[in-house]
TrEMBL record:
<comment type="function">
    <text>Component of the proteasome core, a large protease complex with broad specificity involved in protein degradation.</text>
</comment>
<comment type="pathway">
    <text>Protein degradation; proteasomal Pup-dependent pathway.</text>
</comment>
<keyword id="KW-0378">Hydrolase</keyword>
<dbReference type="InterPro" id="IPR022483">
    <property type="entry name" value="PSB_actinobac"/>
</dbReference>
<dbReference type="InterPro" id="IPR029055">
    <property type="entry name" value="Ntn_hydrolases_N"/>
</dbReference>
<keyword id="KW-0865">Zymogen</keyword>
<dbReference type="Pfam" id="PF00227">
    <property type="entry name" value="Proteasome"/>
</dbReference>
<keyword id="KW-0068">Autocatalytic cleavage</keyword>
<keyword id="KW-0647">Proteasome</keyword>
<feature type="active site" description="Nucleophile">
    <location>
        <position position="69"/>
    </location>
</feature>
<dbReference type="GO" id="GO:0005737">
    <property type="term" value="C:cytoplasm"/>
</dbReference>
<protein>
    <recommendedName>
        <fullName>Proteasome subunit beta</fullName>
        <ecNumber>3.4.25.1</ecNumber>
    </recommendedName>
</protein>
<dbReference type="InterPro" id="IPR001353">
    <property type="entry name" value="Proteasome_sua/b"/>
</dbReference>
<dbReference type="GO" id="GO:0019941">
    <property type="term" value="P:modification-dependent protein catabolic process"/>
</dbReference>
<keyword id="KW-0963">Cytoplasm</keyword>
<comment type="subunit">
    <text>The 20S proteasome core is composed of 14 alpha and 14 beta subunits that assemble into four stacked heptameric rings, resulting in a barrel-shaped structure. The two inner rings, each composed of seven catalytic beta subunits, are sandwiched by two outer rings, each composed of seven alpha subunits. The catalytic chamber with the active sites is on the inside of the barrel. Has a gated structure, the ends of the cylinder being occluded by the N-termini of the alpha-subunits. Is capped by the proteasome-associated ATPase, ARC.</text>
</comment>
<dbReference type="GO" id="GO:0004298">
    <property type="term" value="F:threonine-type endopeptidase activity"/>
</dbReference>
Length: 294
């Protein structure tokens, strides 16, 4: 029989890497950068070797990766709405018809992605974990500006992959709970591949179809849109983008595949159901049957 009076076992803490025992900041990405850098998005694959190229040369890879487009965001009477189409392309082929490009980041923010789909999805997962980790460690939530800055830092960390053709360009939006007027609380942030962060006003779009989507929003947007009006405006913009951009997919009534829509206000972030989005998409398509130009 074991001696119940024996001293408790001393676990071999010296076997644990020092990075796991060293107090750090509230950033999970910084912790991974020190402890397990290979787990960061874009650090697990040597793209240059995959492409048969010299990794020291910043040339685009010779292989095609699935890319996702198009995402739009616009402010509303009480916050913001973000919408993304569902198509991913790989060269001239439709790689996926129902990919999701818009995600709830936390209770009061939303993030959308364009670019190399696999890396973009991993970046979003890491960003959501980053926000959750910070809140657990620090005991408070990041401000909306703080969240936008954290995302910019993570994009900057992907610069090496971006220079080899695997760029990720997100769009971030949410409500600033410190602004007392709901109509002015919605904020939209765009980024470039170097991690540059820019605040946009009223509306914005990313992806290959964004030039067409933003042209549609330019004509249809007006300040103080109700959430359902903003959703219809976003779907109209995606429809116009899909009409001219082969990499953007419009509402698919045959397969019941509709844009992903997330609205955010002071109460929280809400993903719209496929049924609710489908009803509005059917109205948009019915209107285009009568007036194809919108």
């Amino acid at each position: 029989m074991a001696d119940s009076t024996a001293a408790p076992r001393n676990w071999p803490t010296q076997a644990i890497p020092a990075a796991y025992l060293t107090p750090g900041t509230g950033s999970f990405a910084d912790f991974l950068r020190r402890a397990e850098p290979q787990l960061l998005p874009g650090n697990g694959v040597a793209v240059g070797h995959l492409a048969g190229a010299n990794p020291s040369l910043h040339a685009a890879p010779a292989v095609d990766f699935p890319h996702g487009t198009t995402v739009v965001a616009l402010t509303t009477a009480d916050g913001v709405v973000m919408a993304g189409d569902r198509r991913a392309t790989q060269g001239n082929v439709i790689a996926q018809r129902d990919i999701e490009k818009v995600f709830v980041a936390d209770s009061h923010s939303v993030v959308g992605i364009a670019g190399a789909a696999g890396l973009a999805v991993e970046l979003v997962r890491m960003f959501r974990l980053e926000l959750e980790h910070y809140e657990k460690i620090e005991g408070v939530r990041l401000s909306l500006d703080g969240k936008a800055n954290r995302l910019a830092s993570m994009i900057r960390g992907n610069l090496g992959a971006a220079l080899q053709g695997m760029a990720v360009v997100p769009i971030f939006a949410g409500v600033d709970l410190n602004v007392p007027e709901p109509a002015k609380s919605g904020r939209i942030y765009s980024y470039d591949v170097t991690g540059g962060r820019y605040e946009e006003h009223d509306y914005y779009g990313i992806g290959s179809g964004s030039i067409f989507a933003k042209s549609a929003l330019k004509k249809r947007f007006r300040p103080g849109l109700a959430p359902d009006e903003a959703v219809r405006t976003a779907i109209e913009a995606l429809y116009d983008a899909a009409d001219d951009d082969t990499a953007t997919g419009g509402p698919d009534l045959t397969r019941k595949i509709f844009p992903v829509i997330v609205s955010v206000n002071a109460v929280g972030a809400t993903r719209w159901s496929d049924d609710a989005v489908g009803q509005i998409a059917e109205q948009v398509i019915a209107g285009r049957m009568e007036n194809p130009g919108g």
